[in-house]
Amino acid sequence: MVRVSNFLISFVNVLTFMVAIMALGFGLWFKADEGKSLCQKSLYMPLIIFGGSLLVLSLMGLIGSCCRASFFLWIYLFFLFLLIVGMICLSVFTILVTNKGVGKALSGKGGNEAKFGDWQNWLEKHVVDDKHWAEIKSCMATFKYCQMIPRGKSADFYKYSLSTAQSSCCKPPTYCGFEFTNATYWTMPKAGPAVPDSDCKTWSNTQNELCFNCQSCKASYIDTIQKNWNKMTLLNFCIFVFIIIIYSVGCCALRNNRSKGYSYKPYP
Asked: Do residues 254 and 70 lie in contact, with contact meaning Cβ atoms separated by under 8 Å?
């Protein structure tokens, strides 16, 4: 039983080491290929940071468990502890920005008192701003998001169940009264749009633009993020529990390293 904790820590860190190598490889590939789109280029830095951090953490865990080097295992456990704290903060933050009721309650209502923060509008201010929205539009165009909609006659198109984002970003709003040509090509009536709405004027039949600049598209994107983050709650909880278990096993491995007769001895 003495070596079980060390073996488990080593096994987990071998797996994370391989994940780190793959992340670094993809990050460097995206960075090196000048032909990549803005969307793909925006991925390289997060991948490199994630891969580099995970690589260092994995090496610390491997050295600390395989060589029974308590110093490196201390560092490994310290960063795992920071990760646990970070996940707790991230979970609280996600609840604040994806649940309007909670955001309003913490923001406070009325009066001139200092408020905790207008959390419900955080996504609007930091996700669909000009800089980030340009990257999001690039991703939609690169991966041909709107071209996934089946093309055909008007009757067939209206039978197809569009997602909220597809309905808001890939076609003009219904109230504009545009005439159907195909799934991503609509003709404005000679008399102009049915209502003087900005989204009706923003629509473009250029396949890389469509309604990507429409306010309805941005709103649907935020709504999709909120729903996806809420769906990921269970996954985040499982990851959190897994990290807690690894942290506990790491503490056992550290105790084993410091036990008499086991300090700094490599495996036979």
From this structure: yes
